[in-house]
Design goal:
Length: 390
């Protein structure tokens, strides 16, 4: 791989150990994937923040990098294992909290923005169309590539952090236009109105075409929130990092020859398959983390009501702060629902505490089952609130 003089010096250790070991990771990755050079990134999103996933080995690795490492570009963090301020109310054990705080302190020392969210594009991590970035978190990667028109591979935690500490990434995969062209047309013939419609659509398309890049036709309009839900779902059930939605998403693509169809009965079946038919004991909304508009909507629906079950509303802290100014958070908390910042029902260590998760998130259903061994119930937000307050 061709390195500039500065990149070679980074690799040789002129800029310290954190930069040197980061460069080692990026150059090795580039060589494995046949990259010819490194390119600059405009921002980074790091995943693998929960102590639950990192363990002590991960914490030691971060503490070591933090001795002399400083990020060179805007860098945000994915959700952690707990709300960094309100963890006691969410029932997080103290020994876990101690370790999670140390993880976040290491990131802070490196200059990372330590609010933890999977929707960094709602809190200011939004480079402009066409820029290269280095993002981890499958739903955010899919949103970045497809909806924002950024260019990123699906990074792992260590490679994203290496990009943050050097401002670089190897140029391969999704950074190259020839790898961003649609491979199959998906004709959608179904009523697309709600968040769960889009979640179910991601489930069906993901299972049908896997990682292939879709050119999706037949959808007339989609809100930011619906696209957020769709990105999380198609990335979870298909593993894709990019799709094109005709008339809605910004990237140009060639038109492939192959096509598949998606019908209303397939969407209905997908919704049935994400329902285990049991009595929920936790309701969680905000996977991926909510927009301000969604928080407002939830507050209006909860106004004057009391929730009878555990209910988590997952949102980035800066969105919570704005929602606080508008009075939405007080309304939600007065109902007994809990605001969970920095975390979610999947990455928090709540396995065993609950049996059945009710959510509007197709991704939440997948990980609720797979990671936390929950039964799941898949419903629209108005239905979830109706059920939890009756
Ligand atoms: Fe975000 Fe947690 Fe869902 S990280 S995408 S809310 S599983």
């Amino acid at each position: 791989m061709q390195l500039t003089k500065e990149e070679q010096e980074m690799l040789d250790g002129k800029y310290g150990n954190a930069v040197k070991s980061s460069m080692n990771i990026l150059v090795s990755l580039g060589e494995i994937f046949g990259a010819k050079r490194l390119i600059d990134v405009a921002s980074v999103q790091i995943a693998g923040v929960s102590y639950h996933n990192l363990g002590d080995a991960g914490l030691d690795y971060l503490a070591d990098l933090a001795k002399d490492g400083k990020v060179r570009v805007l860098t945000t963090l994915n959700p952690a294992g707990m709300d960094m301020e309100n963890w006691k109310a969410l029932g997080i054990p103290e020994d876990f909290a101690d370790k999670q705080i140390k993880v976040i302190e290491a990131f802070k020392k490196m200059g990372v923005v330590t609010t933890c969210t999977c929707t960094p594009y709602f809190i200011g991590n939004v480079p402009h169309y066409g820029q290269n970035v280095s993002w981890a978190e499958s739903s955010a990667v899919c949103y970045a590539n497809s909806v924002l028109g950024l260019k990123t591979n699906r990074e792992g935690g260590p490679s994203a952090l290496a990009s943050a500490l050097t401002g670089k990434t190897p140029e391969f995969g999704m950074h190259l236009d020839e790898n961003r062209q649609a491979e199959v047309i998906v004709n959608v013939d179904a009523g697309m109105e709600t968040i769960t419609d889009f979640g179910a659509l991601g489930y069906v398309i993901g299972k049908k075409i896997g990682k292939k890049i879709a050119l999706i036709r037949g959808i007339e309009k989609a809100s930011v929130e619906q696209l957020k839900s769709f990105c999380a779902s198609i990335a979870t059930y298909g593993g894709t990092a990019l799709f094109h939605m005709e008339g809605i998403t910004p990237n140009k693509t060639t038109v492939p020859k192959d096509s598949v169809d998606v019908s209303q009965p397939e969407l209905d079946k997908a919704k049935e398959e994400m329902n285990d038919g049991e009595e929920p004991d936790i309701y969680a909304i905000g996977c991926p983390h909510l927009s301000l508009k969604e928080v407002e909507d939830i507050a209006k629906r909860l106004e004057g009501k009391k929730v009878k079950k555990e209910m988590w509303i997952c949102v980035a802290r800066p969105i919570k702060r704005t929602a606080e100014q508008m009075g939405y958070i007080k309304t939600i908390e007065d109902s007994g629902a809990k605001i969970a910042c920095d975390t979610c029902m999947v990455v928090a260590p709540i396995k065993g505490r609950f049996k059945c998760l009710a959510t509007d998130s197709a991704k939440g259903c997948f990980y609720g089952r797979g990671k936390n061994s929950f039964k799941v119930v898949f419903r629209e937000i108005p239905e979830l609130i109706e059920e939890a307050t009756k």
